[in-house]
Write a structure and sequence with these properties.
Helix content: 25-40%
CATH architecture of the largest domain: Orthogonal Bundle
Pfam families: PAN_2, PK_Tyr_Ser-Thr
GO molecular function: ATP binding; protein serine/threonine kinase activity
Strand order of the largest sheet: 4-6-5-8-3-7
Catalytic activity: L-seryl-[protein] + ATP = O-phospho-L-seryl-[protein] + ADP + H(+); L-threonyl-[protein] + ATP = O-phospho-L-threonyl-[protein] + ADP + H(+)
Number of strands: 17
Structural class: alpha+beta
Organism: Populus trichocarpa
Oligomer: single chain
CATH superfamily of the largest domain: Transferase(Phosphotransferase) domain 1
Strand content: 15-25%
Largest sheet: 6 strands, antiparallel
Number of helices: 7
Radius of gyration: 45 Å
Shape: rod-shaped
Protein name: non-specific serine/threonine protein kinase
CATH class of the largest domain: Mainly Alpha
């Protein structure tokens, strides 16, 4: 009951006599909405901030805990409520009430928790919304997690298929990253041949003794990725003694590298623009003619004799490499364009090369 002049019933209780209640006669008190069924699983409702019932018919035990107190109450069909004996809320001791619960009040300060016995259906009705919310929440989380996992695996499988497709489309040998790292002494500065527009070039030596040149695409060069793909596609389809030979590529982790045959004499511009003049003296008229003829043969192949019609677009002395016999080989096809056999002109969105 309340400390206010007007009495109220506890939750899950109703006036015993509605007529008397309407005349403000509360002497008959309240009764449960549903009568108890002792042997069919009664339960308890937790009510906080109460003055506990009068101890006219009660029993106490100082050694029991709250769980034992509940079990003790359930064993006796006359037990109507229980609580801790320790009103400070430390959970020790047991107090139980038999029969009617007399003079229960709601108090603003210093109230105690009371566990009042109810019909099992009343307890279940209170628990169902919480159970429903818990079930809905669990199912929702499971569905969301399932969807996220499905999206992750679909994207992962697509990425694997795309990567596999890219590698299959290349139709040329694929080198492992560790093999290239070992061949170049882990990309040692001592093995660095130079720096191109899209990344450094290193000299390397494979386990079989073959010398190679490795063009390593810079990770920060987004534009260079297009040139990388272009060069792989074109050089893989072109074969001529005056074109540099692409041995393979490496596409692993975030690394993208092109592996070429190594040209011991470097680029033509190192001879033409030799600072001390010693290299320039090696180019007599016979070698001049041989180099020019080789470049012309390579261009004729690209423009006319190849099954693909290729315009290099970046032909210059630094992109002409010389082998150990000073034979020229056109390199760097990153900016090259492919034309149809009957096509004589084309459009480009980038002004580059020569």
């Amino acid at each position: 009951m309340s400390a206010m002049p007007v009495c109220q019933c506890l939750a899950k209780f109703k006036p015993k006599s509605v007529e008397a209640w309407n005349t403000m006669d509360w002497s008959q008190g309240c009764v449960r909405n549903k009568e108890l069924e002792c042997q069919k699983g009664d339960g308890f409702i937790k009510l906080d901030g109460l003055k506990v019932p009068d101890a006219t018919d009660s029993w106490v035990n100082k050694t029991m805990n709250l769980k034992e107190c509940r079990a003790k109450c359930l064993q006796n069909c006359s037990c109507m409520a229980y609580t801790n004996l320790d009103i400070r809320g430390r959970g020790s001791g047991c107090a139980i009430w038999f029969g009617d619960l007399i003079d229960i009040r709601q108090v603003p300060i210093g109230g105690q928790t009371l566990y009042v016995r109810l019909h099992a259906s009343e307890i279940e009705a209170k628990a169902k919304p919480k159970i429903r919310i818990a079930v809905i929440t669990t199912v929702t989380i499971a569905v969301v997690l399932g969807m996220l996992m499905a999206i992750y695996y679909v994207r992962k499988s697509k990425a694997k298929r795309a990567d596999k497709g890219k590698k299959e489309d290349l139709e040329l040998p694929l080198f492992e990253f560790t093999a290239i790292a070992n061949a170049t002494s882990n990309f040692s500065i001592n093995n660095k041949l130079g720096e191109g527009g899209y990344g450094p070039v290193y000299k390397g030596k494979l386990v079989d003794g073959q010398e190679i040149a490795v063009k390593r695409l810079s990770r920060s060069s987004r534009q260079g990725l297009n040139e990388f793909k272009n060069e792989v596609i074109l050089l893989n389809k072109l074969q001529h003694r005056n074109l540099v030979k692409l041995l393979g590529c490496c596409i692993e982790r975030d690394e993208k590298m092109l592996i070429y045959e190594y040209m011991p004499n470097g680029s033509l511009d190192s001879f033409i623009f030799s600072t001390d003049g010693t290299k320039g003296k090696m180019l007599d008229w016979s070698r001049h003619f041989n180099i020019i003829s080789g470049i012309a043969r390579g261009l004729l192949y690209l423009h006319q004799d190849s099954r693909l019609r290729i315009i290099h677009r970046d032909l210059k002395s630094s992109n002409v490499l010389l082998d150990d016999h000073m034979n020229p080989k056109i390199s760097d096809f990153g900016l090259a364009r492919m034309f149809l056999a009957d096509q004589t002109e084309g459009d480009t969105s980038r002004v580059v090369g020569t």
